[in-house]
Amino acid sequence: MNISSPLPVPTTEEHELSHKLVQQISKEIQQTTQQTIPFRRFMEMALYEPQLGYYVAGKHKLGHQGDFTTAPEISPLYSRCIAQQCQPILTELGNKSTDILEFGAGSGAMAAEILRYLDEQKMLPKQYLILEVSPDLIARQKQRFSHEIPNLVKHIQWITSLPKNFKGVILANEVLDAMPVDLFSIINNKVYEQHIGFDGTQLTVHDQPASNTLAAIIDDLSIKPHSNSYTSEINPMISPWLHAIAESLTQGIMILIDYGYTRQEYYHPDRNIGTLLCYYQHRAHGDFLYYPGLQDITANVDFTAVAEAADKVELTVLSFTSQATFLIANGLEQHLIQALEYEPNKHYQYAQQVRTLTLPAEMGEHFKVMIVGKKINEGLLSFTGVDSRHKL
Ligand SMILES: C[S@@+](CC[C@H](N)C(=O)[O-])C[C@H]1O[C@@H](n2cnc3c(N)ncnc32)[C@H](O)[C@@H]1O
Questions:
Q1: Which atom of ligand 1 is nearest to the CA of 296?
Q2: 132-159 pLDDT, tens per residue?
Q3: What contacts 202, CB < 8 A, 6 or more positions away?
Q4: Are 323 and 364 contacting, i.e. CB atoms less than 8 angstroms apart?
Q5: Could you give the angle at which helices 238-248 and 303-312 cross, rounded to 10 degrees?
Q6: CB within 8 A of 125, min separation 6: which ones?
Q7: Residue 55 resides in a domain
Q8: Whose CB has fewer CB within 10 Å in the chain, the N or C terminal residue?
Q9: pTM value?
Q10: What is the DSSP string of 94-134?
Q11: Closest CA to 353 of 323, 388, 382
């Protein structure tokens, strides 16, 4: 990931697309009484505004040609480890009557590999459901599946809302980090909420006194900044999202994988510029107003908030660990050996993939895996015992 070099300049076509989105955002701003919108709404429009938002418009987002790369794009071994954790749950609940549901399936890389693996194990679920908010990504997923796994396409179904009485495994890989967040600052002990305005030519950033609700939430975090200015984020979607999942799930688990921290680390006094980052053509930077609609905007996950929200809706937090620990416990080494039997000439590539997935300085430690569930015995998880729930 390149952090310091100048950002690439978009093409004329991309420039026009972003301009249209800015016009749309400024129209909404001008319709408000205070002439600003909360940052959260700006981020929602920048990522998901119909036809124009980053995840919705037709831009190549994931992989080498896109703006960022996720673990399923890096290596099929990753998805095989996830599939290995799905297997005992499918066996326990009866695979012929049990489903897998993936939120935000991106390019479809993980779904394709999980289905391949479960097919080899003769353990296919009844259905593989995909709940994806981006029509562009749905089209890419369909294209991939018909090309790569034509014999398994009949098991895949796209859904637009959570099903009633879901039984099985829910997967969310890098989904929480793509949800809109509230951006706040603590300046000289006063709490402000960042809003976006429009000065007639361009979007502008404004610190506004935080609403009582937001101020109370931030107060509860007991942040003790070391400097006069401290900025961070809160994801207000975590609670309603888990609430909806708990309503749908009758029995099974959800595997959540994302970059993030426990609350203590997230709101550490030294982390005074928060975790919000933008990705444009593999450049990471902090300018969230740079060509809205053309770049990803993302924030890390507060896993303590996820655990608290799960607890409130009676989902049990079954385990919490690093990505490296999870992958190793779910057969990474065996999956590597097996892959090399088929493709011995790809030794270097596979070794490189394993390093990226597991080394602490790469994805191994910063990415966490949390499993929550209902009516599931902890013994069905591969890594009980190597668990960091006590840190939450
Ligand atoms: C960073 S991408 C990750 C894609 C894929 N899971 C991967 O790891 O390669 C975020 C994905 O989450 C989807 N997404 C965001 N919010 C969502 C929601 N509330 N429900 C379902 N999908 C969502 C986006 O459309 C996108 O596919």
A1: 1
A2: 999 989 999 999 999 999 999 999 999 9
A3: 22, 289
A4: yes
A5: 40
A6: 86, 90, 95, 98, 99, 100, 118, 155, 168, 169
A7: no
A8: N
A9: 0.96
A10: -GGG-EEEEES-TTSHHHHHHHHHHHHTT---S-EEEE-S-
A11: 323
Mark out the alpha helices in 231-273 (DSSP H runs). Answer: 238-248, 263-266
Burial 339-357 (b: 16+ CB within 10 A, else e): beeeeeeeeeebeebbebb
Asked if residue 173 has its Cβ within 6 Å of ligand 1, the reply is: yes
CB-ligand 1 contact for 242 (6 Å cutoff): no
Tokens of 36: 């600003």
How far apart are alpha carbons 38 and 286 in whole angstroms?
Answer: 18
Pocket of ligand 1 contains residue 162 by CB under 6 Å: no
**Contact by Cβ (8 Å): 272, 227:** yes
What spacing in Å lies between the alpha carbon of 90 and ligand 1's midpoint?
24
Q: Tokens at residue 229, please?
A: 């200015």
Domain that holds residue 172: 71-178+238-266+300-391
CA distance 341 to 274: 44
Q: Give the domain CATH number at 109.
A: 3.40.50.12710
Indicate the pairing of strand 37-38 with strand 190-198.
antiparallel
The yes-or-no verdict on residue 58 having pLDDT over 80 is no
Q: Whose structure tokens read 């011995």?
A: 344
Lowest-confidence region among 111-120, 342-351, 368-377, 380-389: 380-389
Residue 277 lies in a domain: no
Q: Count the neighbouring beta carbons within 10 Å of the beta carbon of residue 313.
A: 17
Residue 188 in any domain: the answer is no
d(CA 356, CA 74): 8
Residue 162 lies in a domain: yes
What is the average pLDDT across 252-280? 96
pLDDT at position 215 is 92
Task: Using most ligand atoms within 8 A of CB, pick from 129, 144, 175, 298 the residue to mutate for ligand 1.
Answer: 175
The dihedrals phi and psi of 281, each to the nearest 5 degrees, come to 45, 55
Distance from C-alpha of 330 to C-alpha of 71, rounded to nearest angstrom = 15
CA atoms within 13 A on the CB side of 352: 5
Ligand 1 near 339 CB (within 6 A): no
Provide the domain count of the chain.
1
In the DSSP assignment, the letter for residue 222 is: T
Q: What are residue 193's DSSP bridge partners? A: 184, 208
